């Protein structure tokens, strides 16, 4: 149409060509500007919608965790995640301080491998800070999923709660994963995976490390020493308690001769200043706390 209109003008060929170049140049510039504006507007709207969806998801998750009354079907719709299932919660984080690292993307990718390897139905992830991710896996049965998590990434750490059903189980498993994370962080250890059921006793004891340190010093005395010999003796006493104070079962569990177990128990009693069968409960709690928190609550030498 443009070409035909210019061709019909009563002007010379040279002027027509110049006019065509001018018109089409202006048209191309208009098209470029319009396209850029459309793309920018689309991106802005898409980002706004994404922020809104993320805000709704975050608000819903925090409401469930806080125990607020929500309908499970409505929560499932907002989260695109089935609430009428068993759930296992994970907290994933890293101590990596490299500002250039795309930490959340790595954590999210790692969380999704739990479903791939365990035939879970769905995974839900939610960032909690720049270097931490909350995650849940929905599954049909109540199996414990800690065995499906491997420490393939040495710089990524995971805390795992026990499985629970429905929204209540969703929230409880998350609280347990957070509690396990606190033990992992405060212990100063480098273990890649911390399972709540392995640390639930120190989680329930107290969060006051000073009190735990006093418990360890008061109950274990010399048995709290950090040297290799004392550590082996302490581990023997712990396994002895786990096996209902039976020397034969302790020897079998540790792969030792019964006489070796008895010798170590004798050494433990010298360090404790009493029989290992006295004050068993506080002594066992102190042993568990020291095993979980390590040097963080070890008495000063």
Automatic annotation (TrEMBL):
- InterPro entries hit by this protein: CdaR-like_regulators, CdaR_GGDEF, PucR_C-HTH_dom, PucR_C-HTH_sf
Tell me the classification of the organism that encodes this protein. Answer: Bacteria, Bacillati, Actinomycetota, Actinomycetes, Mycobacteriales
PANTHER family, A to Z: CARBOHYDRATE DIACID REGULATOR, DNA-BINDING TRANSCRIPTIONAL ACTIVATOR ADER
Where does the CdaR GGDEF-like domain lie?
73-183
The family this protein is said to belong to: Belongs to the CdaR family.
Q: In its UniProt entry, what is this protein called?
A: CdaR family transcriptional regulator
Per the UniProt entry, the signal peptide is none
List residues of the PucR C-terminal helix-turn-helix domain: 235-288
Q: Pfam families under this entry?
A: GGDEF_2, HTH_30
